[in-house]
Write a structure and sequence with these properties.
256 residues, globular
Length: 256
């Protein structure tokens, strides 16, 4: 596999961050990074490849994912031999109770992820649009998904439950936790840099447009402040008014 390329996508609510990695000695080495900015008018693709930095306005509209991805691949191809691309890898926000680890995407898993859209209405549609657009452009490419919720599957049942009727819990109205890929990375780096601290109880913070805290024991998630159907209990973020939205989200997820 040495010399092949992997393309990673982190689709948010307003941007898509892109990483391009080359496999060297069976390990990925980042060779380029980019971002599609949906906040810009017109849409903008920014690419950093070595010392070269370019900003390219895209002709597509934000709703036309097929052409957005086609233009992005075309721009990447100006600098990089895209025939070496062997797979695309996606950060997907919500895996529900069905996905506890990275998977190779197929029709069945795509349907399962689409069913989780009410629990992540800002991010899940972006993930799915992106995956489908790449499938349309390059159907031969393998696509994988890694899930923000998977890291928090170690939270026990008491932590995950709301004080709600069991029927709602069984329908998916429970705490899932987010930013799990970030916390998994933090746990790994802490174990590498300060193993004596990583073996104990720690609190990690993910700070950005979305913000949360995670309580870990030995690098394993035991509780998190960012929850679904409620978002963060106390941490403010770019898209949430917290307690008010928490009440509204429970109502929406239950369908009543």
């Amino acid at each position: 596999m040495s010399g092949e390329l992997l393309l990673t996508f982190n689709a948010g609510s307003s941007t898509v961050k892109i990483g391009l990695f080359e496999i060297r000695a069976d390990r990925p080495q980042r060779i380029a990074s980019g971002m599609i900015d949906f906040r810009a008018s017109p849409l903008t693709f920014r690419l950093t490849h070595g010392s070269r930095k370019v900003t390219v306005p895209l002709k597509s509209s934000a709703e036309a994912w097929d052409t957005v991805i086609a233009e992005t691949f075309e721009e990447l191809g100006r600098d990089i031999d895209m025939t070496r691309l062997s797979a695309t890898c996606h950060r997907v926000v919500h895996g529900g109770d069905s996905f506890a680890r990275a998977i190779r995407l197929d029709d069945a898993s795509m349907d399962a992820l689409a069913a989780l859209t009410p629990l992540a209405p800002l991010h899940q549609p972006q993930n799915l649009h992106l995956i489908r657009a790449i499938r349309q452009l390059r159907p031969e490419l393998a696509q994988t998904a890694s899930f923000d919720t998977a890291f928090h599957r170690t939270n026990n049942d008491i932590v995950r439950r709301f004080a709600l009727p069991r029927e709602l819990h069984d329908k998916g109205v429970k705490r899932y936790g987010f930013h799990g890929l970030s916390y998994k990375y933090i746990a790994g780096e802490l174990a590498r840099l300060a193993p004596e601290l990583a073996e104990g109880k720690t609190v990690a913070a993910h700070l950005g447009s979305g913000a949360s805290l995670c309580a870990m024991d030995g690098g394993v998630s035991r509780d998190t402040s960012m929850l679904t159907p409620t978002p963060a209990s106390n941490q403010r973020s770019g898209f949430r008014t917290e307690r008010l939205r928490s009440k509204m989200r429970v109502t929406s997820a239950s369908g009543k």
